[in-house]
Input
Amino acid sequence: MARRRLLLLLKPLDVYPARQSNGTSRIINPQVLSYLDDRCKVHKDAINFCQDVLGKKLVDWEPILRNSLSHPIRNVDLVVTVGGDGTLLQASHFMDDSIPILGVNSDPTQVEEVEEFSDKFDATRSTGYLCAATVRTFEQVLDDVLEDRAVPSRLSRISMCVNSQLLSTYALNDVLIAQKCPATVSRFSFRIRRDDQLYSRMVNCRSSGLRISTAAGSTGAMLSAGGFKMPILSRDLQYMVREPISPREAESPLMHGLVRSDQSMEATWFSKEGVIYIDGSHVFYDIQHGDTIGISTGAPDLKVFLPQHLLS
Output
């Protein structure tokens, strides 16, 4: 087996701010403090374990913190993320369809812990929806990948252009087009196209924004807002107008639907200023009154080793 080159992308430890730099705590509840300290320790132990495993394999690997990633990922055979879905998402913004990615959930939710503290605080840890491995299974999953016994799935992503100019970032989960303060009323219109021909009539909206999700992102904010879960390998997009102002608009079936894989969406922004948020709030692009936003699945796929239960 040829020697492989890996990039190990790590969720930083400082995302668990239980204590200040001088060692004192800003948290009064000792149970919450213990919980956050444990999360930090579990994640740190997971990083050390994954590094130890890689040290035993016929691979060359380089660790990097996810918040230090600033350039496209090139010249590696595999990206391994250690954290949760957020770390995998961060990596996806710097990847095309030539390199597969394997997610390791470093801090899985513990059902007993959630039940124990349910009346005190939310003890949910990392969901790791797209992560194919945990510390317990990492070595076996990695061996399957390195020995070509596992095949990555191809997840569709959202491609966006503003006034026909392609944005450099693709969305793996979802896109939100809204005001800088998303609670502010947004004015926009949209329509669906197929093969450069209009497929639906223009829909004019006053709402808190427009959300578009991939199949991978349909279990997140879209589902919470009343959308539906899509098969993970679906090529379609799901859209929803968020909180329409008019009761008549809210009842319209045009407020929620699908953009098929052979279709695209064209939205026009009619508020003064707005933002396209990509996979959360950290990656965004500003838009102005009159800008036209094109949305489709024309982005390169992301090759991901997925948990088997998502494929069954």
Remarks:
- The chain has a mean pLDDT of 93.
- Residues 114 and 123 are 5 Å apart (CA to CA).
- Helices lie at 30-56, 85-92, 111-116, 138-146, 221-224, 247-250, 308-311.
